[in-house]
Write a structure and sequence with these properties.
Mean pLDDT: 97
Structural class: alpha/beta
Strand content: 15-25%
Strand order of the largest sheet: 3-2-1-4-5-6-7
Bound molecules: 5-O-phosphono-beta-D-ribofuranosylamine
Radius of gyration: 16 Å
Order of helices and strands: EHEHEHEEHEEH
Distance between the termini: 13 Å
Number of strands: 7
Helix content: 25-40%
Largest sheet: 7 strands, mixed
Length: 183
């Protein structure tokens, strides 16, 4: 049997990227397993997927960095994946932390990426999976997917188009991490 990497997914909201990772992890040849889900928001709709798929989850609202330490150890976590996690995470001692961002970094760090891309009349936008460092949305890029911005594009249509690509990109990036660090 193949060795799998143990993931901890951090969420704050909807959890559609979480769901796409969970679904990929159910594939036999996928090199990772979701061991733990952590939310800083007790009302995150994404927590429903923890319940649905029977995955352990924790809600941590205070002293996040301090309180997550023993959880990471208890579940033998190898890689932390931020998926719509709306808090700046200061865990620089932890080896591999990934994030997904809805723009072609280094363009449009931070929030409201789609409107800013439209305002600047960009021809393309997309999404990026990158390593998390102490500087917001600035760690090394692992993978990106690009979409074309059409003539009548709105913030909403662009968001939907990019979100679809995110759901393909994050699992691809996890496979890449596995090949580079664990194979
Ligand atoms: C995604 O657009 C992701 O790129 C950004 O936050 C959003 C999270 O969506 N970081 P979801 O919670 O995964 O549905």
């Amino acid at each position: 049997m193949m060795h799998k990497i143990n993931l901890c997914i951090l969420i704050s909201g909807r959890g559609s990227n979480l769901l796409s990772i969970i679904k990929n992890c159910r594939k036999k040849d996928f090199p990772a397993k979701v061991k733990l889900i952590v939310s800083n928001n007790p009302k995150a709709p994404g927590l429903q997927y923890a319940k649905k798929y029977n995955i352990p989850f924790k809600v941590i609202t205070k002293n996040f960095e301090k309180n997550i330490v023993n959880k990471l150890a208890n579940y033998s976590i190898d890689v932390i994946c931020l998926a719509g996690f709306m808090k700046i995470l200061k865990l620089s001692w932890f080896n591999i932390i990934l994030n997904i961002h809805p723009s072609l970094l280094p363009k449009y760090k931070g929030l409201n990426t789609h409107q800013r891309a439209l305002n600047n009349k960009e021809k393309y936008s997309g999404c990026t999976v990158h390593y998390v460092t102490d500087k917001l949305d600035s760690g090394d890029i692992i993978l990106q997917r690009k979409v074309k911005i059409t003539k009548n594009e709105t913030k909403e249509s662009l968001e939907a188009k990019i979100l679809k690509e995110e759901h393909i990109l994050y699992p691809q990036a996890i496979r890449k991490i596995y090949k580079e660090h664990y194979n």
